[in-house]
Write a structure and sequence with these properties.
Length: about 750
């Protein structure tokens, strides 16, 4: 009974949830392109071993579909990009599998704690909720990423993997699920549905409350599940198979056709609806709400004459069809039903389109309703301007001509009201215009940074790897090359894939006046994309300041010594910003697009012995700002191609930085005083030195080496002395002093002294 497992990996994005220090859980990162591989399986033991390995890989996931190959992908117009493929239905075959995943999201066990003692809770679920053939079979289990969180108390959230004696396709299993009187989530049976396999990620300071997150349970009688599906059900599977591009001849609903083209369609519901991936799935608060959670009902199905979007997730419960259309990029034909008319007038000028179907009063004036104002604002010929939303700058934009965007200002609301009222509208209120402008702009989103970067062409001359040497006068070493490569792939990565992980900060170390800050500012194409930040500022203020920026300089590492180091590391590692925008009621989350670079003329600035991986110090010389300004577009173009080929280049920079950190650790003047005292003979002990003692207590150093009075000695001083002793080769533990044990410091490898 051999089988295969299709594994997808993203180069940098997290395919695991993140437990944040503020108590919330961050959702999975969005991912579009993957490398794919297939591993052989000989049985449930092989499957369990493979899943155990994948648990430690936060960039990997599993799907049921089998990749049809690069030639097929090219044939259907979806050729791989830099060896990476899209997770689209037409690229993967619904192949029969022995393995199957059962996803449990809200089961409340009566016999066991689902977090502290999950196996009995899982056994209870199998015994009470699954067909008899599953009972007693072997299984691999893994608690969901949110299991154990305070908001999920008493609920079993687990993925259970079984091995079927007979292999079945996804379509066959979905057909079987529809015949049994058991509530199973069959969305996991779609060929390209992601099966998340990684354990959750925990921010610094967050402790996993779950003792064990996965395991294997051997079968009582047989490892395999003897599931038998009758022939009639198997025959139905063909009619229930997921739609693919070739099925378009049977689809006369334009929205359905677009969804199929986009690869969003996962299958069909019983009432003719199309089960789809929700365009807002990254904002859903749970992994799933059950079978057919998101559905598009084509015209004439589900009781809807014109088609209807429906999503059962609470976040999407109030979504309108028009919002759904905007999210998937569908534009309704507003001229449907009109007679065909000429497109040009006799003089050759275009025939103006007919006005929108406004609601008017009995005198013909256009009513100032939300719908009427929205109809006008979607038509530049009616409202006098183009409206859009730049997701990079996080701002509503206005253009008098296509592509000539500028930021929308408060005065533009007034001009818009004037234009509408001159065009026949009844007086339009300011708040009404503000709401509609926000809505229409949101329907027309674009990413100015991505568009700019995509338009660049690299000349093929390598510059990125030697960046620190060529432009910042650094030494030519493997480390400085690795830092340059990390910096530029991170910069390009956050343009191409907003929020991509880039949690290390290059720090340029050099004397004042060599042009460090000028060089950092010269890396961006415009001063508008550069910001200066300080760790002294509040996070909300920082988040607003970073919006629409590509590089942020931490000049002279301001605030690094005045703020909690864990808070600084969490801020640097953040992939999303959250705050309440102007005129908004609710907080919004924005993917971080900026990369931080520090500058300092101080050699010593690292104070944390354990958390220095975030910092990449580089000693620099005279900065060639003019050359950098001349070459920066080529640097960006090369960085884009490097990122698309291999993601953000973390590994070498992080590994080599460990040897550099020691040069920049902050030294404590107490360390010299303590070292001198340790080597000074003691007049009262016949010339022996304190270093020769079996152990030392902090009070010995405080009084003997530092001459501190009791009133000057507290917890802070104790910790400071402890750090100095660690650097001098001492470790902390317990030793006997007379007939009692005391906390003491002693040289490494010194034997314990017993009474």
């Amino acid at each position: 009974m051999t089988d295969t497992l299709t594994i997808l990996r993203h180069q940098s994005n997290l395919l695991a949830k993140t437990w944040r220090a503020d108590g919330t859980i961050a959702a999975y990162d969005q991912a579009k392109f993957f490398t794919q591989s297939s591993v052989p399986l000989a049985g449930i033991a092989d499957l369990s071993a493979q899943l155990a390995q994948l648990q430690d890989d936060p960039h990997a996931c599993v799907i049921r579909g089998a990749y049809l190959g690069d030639d097929h992908a090219a044939e259907v117009g979806l050729a791989p990009e830099h060896g990476r493929v899209r997770r689209l239905l037409e690229l993967f075959d619904d192949t029969p599998h022995h393995w199957v995943l059962v996803e449990v999201d809200d089961f409340q066990p009566l016999t066991a704690d689902p977090v502290r003692d999950p196996v009995p809770a899982i056994d209870e679920y199998i015994a009470t909720c699954l067909p008899e053939c599953f009972q007693g079979a072997a299984y691999h289990w893994q608690l969901s990423n949110s299991a154990g969180h305070a908001t999920k108390g008493g609920v079993l959230k687990v993925h259970i993997w079984f091995w079927l004696a007979t292999p079945y396709t996804s379509a066959q299993l979905k057909a079987w699920v529809k015949t049994i009187a058991i509530a199973l989530d069959d969305s996991v049976l779609n060929p390209v549905q992601v099966h998340y396999t990684a354990a959750p990620v925990f921010e610094p300071g967050v402790v996993d409350p779950v003792p064990v997150r996965s395991g294997f349970v051997s079968g009582l009688l047989d490892d395999a599940v003897t599931l038998t599906i009758d022939q009639a059900t198997l025959d139905q599977a063909q009619a229930l198979r997921p739609r693919q591009r070739g099925d378009l001849v049977a689809v006369d609903d334009p929205v359905a056709s677009l969804l199929i083209d986009q690869g969003r369609v996962l299958g069909e519901s019983r009432d003719g609806g199309l089960i789809i991936t929700c365009p807002w799935e990254d904002e859903h608060t749970s992994d799933t709400t059950g079978t057919d959670a998101t559905v598009w009902f084509p015209a004439g199905t589900g009781g809807y004459d014109r088609g209807h979007f429906k999503c059962l997730h609470a976040h999407c419960a109030d979504r309108l069809d028009i919002e759904f259309f905007a999210a998937i990029g569908y534009q309704e034909d507003t001229l449907a039903g009109f007679d065909v008319i000429p497109t040009t007038q006799p003089d050759g000028t275009p025939v103006p389109p007919p006005p929108p179907a406004y609601e008017r009063n009995d005198k013909g004036a256009i009513l100032a309703t939300v719908e009427n104002v929205a109809l006008a604002c979607r038509r530049p010929d009616e409202c006098g301007t183009h409206l859009g939303y730049d997701s990079f700058q996080g701002a509503i934009m206005l253009a008098d001509a296509p592509g000539e965007w500028r930021a929308f200002r408060d005065v533009d609301y007034t001009q818009l009201r004037i234009t509408l009222e001159r065009g026949g509208f009844k007086p339009v209120g300011r708040e009404l215009v503000r709401d509609v402008v926000e809505k229409v702009a949101d329907e027309n989103q674009f990413d100015s940074a991505r568009a700019w970067l995509d338009a660049l062409t690299w000349d093929g001359v390598p510059r990125v790897e030697g960046f620190m040497l060529t432009y910042f006068g650094a030494a030519d070493t493997p480390y400085t090359r690795a830092v340059g490569l990390y910096l530029w792939t991170a910069l390009a990565g956050r343009v191409v894939e907003p929020g991509v992980k880039a949690d290390m900060v290059p720090i340029l170390v050099g004397p004042q006046g060599v042009g460090k800050s000028s060089g950092v500012a010269a890396m961006v194409p415009s001063p508008d994309f550069f910001a200066e930040v300080s760790f002294n500022d509040h996070d909300d203020d920082q988040a607003r300041r970073l919006r629409g920026k590509l590089i942020a300089e931490i000049s002279e590492l301001r605030g690094l010594g005045n703020r909690d180091l864990e808070a600084i590391k969490a801020f640097v590692a953040r992939t999303h910003e959250q705050w309440v925008p102007k005129y908004r009621e609710f907080a919004a989350s924005y993917a971080r697009r900026v990369v931080m670079v520090g500058t300092t003329n101080q050699d010593e600035f690292l104070a944390d012995d354990t958390g220095n991986r975030r910092w990449l110090p580089v000693r620099v010389g005279q900065v060639d700002v003019a050359r950098l300004q001349r070459d920066r577009l080529q640097l960006w173009a090369e960085a884009r191609d490097l990122f698309l080929a291999g993601g953000v280049a973390f590994d070498d920079a992080e590994r080599l930085a460990k040897d550099v950190h020691a040069e920049h650790m902050v030294s404590d003047p107490w360390e010299d005083d303590i070292a001198k005292w340790l080597g000074t003979p003691d007049d009262f002990n016949l010339g022996s030195t304190p270093r020769m003692r079996e152990f030392l207590q902090v009070s010995d150093i405080a009084v003997g080496a530092l001459r501190l009075e009791a009133r000057m000695f507290g917890k802070r001083e104790e910790m400071r002395i402890g750090k100095c002793l660690q650097k001098l080769g001492y470790v902390r533990g317990r030793r006997w002093a007379g007939n009692r044990q005391v906390r003491a410091w002693f040289l490494k490898n010194s034997p314990p002294v017993t009474t």
